Amino acid sequence: MNIPLNIDWQQILLHVFNFAILTGGLYFILYSPIKKFIDKRDAYYRNMDSEANEKLASARAQEEQARGCLEGIDQQLKETRMKAEAELSEYTARQMQEAKAKADRIIEEARKSAEEEKRAILASADKEILSMTKEATEKIIHSSTDEAYRKFLEIAERDVQNGK
Fold first, then answer.
1. Contact 116, 132 (CB under 8 A)
2. How do the domains of the chain map onto residue ranges?
3. Which of 34, 77, 116, 155 has a 20 to 30 A CA-CA distance from 59?
């Protein structure tokens, strides 16, 4: 065979055939299982991603629901606080009225007590004046007018100095 450049076509075809067998074998032995493994793994991660997205959507829905509940609770708290403040102001007003009434009663009782004390002091003073007048009169009758008058003045001055 006269082949230019000394190329043996039979050897080239055998090498091509060997290469085809090697490529086919490697494809079936290595590429196909690896491709299946990669596809299976890709499907697993896609499934995980879709589950994560579903869970995220569910979490967002629950978050919105929780926000709605919190807003409702906030509204209830505001209403409860307003009721409590109204009750507190009502209670405070009632307590102030009761305290004022009690203070008025105490003041009235103190006035009555002071009035009674004043009457008692005036009655005592009247009795003392009457008693002093009796003594002075008796002394005037029993002794001379001048001497009795001096003694009366001395007694009155002594009583004034002693604070009677």
1. no
2. 8-162
3. 77
CA atoms within 13 A on the CB side of 141: 6
pTM: 0.39
Could you report the per-residue pLDDT of 2-22, keeping only the tens digit for each? 566 677 778 889 999 999 999
> What are the backbone dihedrals phi and psi of residue 75, each rounded to the nearest 5 degrees, phi first?
-65, -45
Among 10, 8, 7, 29, CA closest to 18: 10
DSSP assignment string, the chain: ---GGG--HHHHHHHHHHHHHHHHHHIIIIIHHHHHHHHHHHHHHHHHHHHHHHHHHHHHHHHHHHHHHHHHHHHHHHHHHHHHHHHHHHHHHHHHHHHHHHHHHHHHHHHHHHHHHHHHHHHHHHHHHHHHHHHHHHHHHHS-HHHHHHHHHHHHHHHHHHT-
Q: Can you give the pLDDT at residue 41? A: 95
- Tell me the HSE value of 52 on the side-chain side, using a 13 A CA sphere: 6
